[in-house]
Write a structure and sequence with these properties.
Structural class: alpha+beta
Largest sheet: 7 strands, antiparallel
CATH class: Alpha Beta
Radius of gyration: 15 Å
Number of helices: 4
Helix content: 25-40%
Strand content: 15-25%
Strand order of the largest sheet: 1-2-3-6-7-9-8
């Protein structure tokens, strides 16, 4: 079995965000950090070198022997966009996504270029619902 590379660690979230290039991306990332802290009530933790996570759960894949820990909620300010990890497999968020503004999605990710492209109140609701759904399904039911 391969060793997981994306693990929680004690690296500084603030140092990571302050090291980012681009004032808009850095400012947006700090605003998103505050949204997540408010929505989750959790302190942020670095996962690997570039993911900021909140809370955690243990998973075991049904398709492989892989298992490990992963954040219940998180985001990563990447060079191309701000990537937010949304638990879309747990619930349908199309009602909020339709009101969000300019964004793209994939299976479990929400991509936005900058906060000014989206409705921040809707984004906060999306983060909150996704975290609460993840906590309910992945932690509280165990």
């Amino acid at each position: 079995m391969s060793t997981l590379k994306t693990l929680a660690n004690d690296s500084s979230v603030e140092d990571f965000l302050n090291s980012m290039n681009g004032e808009v991306k850095r400012t947006d990332a700090f605003k998103i950090l505050e949204m997540y802290k408010s929505a989750t009530g959790e302190e942020p933790k670095m996962w690997g070198a570039s993911i900021i996570g909140f809370g955690q759960y243990h998973y075991k894949s049904e398709r492989s022997s892989q298992e490990g820990d992963w954040p219940l909620a998180g985001f990563s300010p990447r060079k191309q966009n701000l990537t937010l990890y949304i638990m879309s497999e747990l619930n349908d968020y199309s009602d909020l996504l339709s009101k969000l503004g300019k964004h793209k999605t994939s299976k479990a990710c929400l991509y936005i270029n900058k906060l000014s492209d989206v409705d921040e109140d809707v984004l906060k609701q999306l983060i909150t619902r996704s975290y609460n759904d993840a906590k309910k399904v992945l932690v509280d039911k165990k």
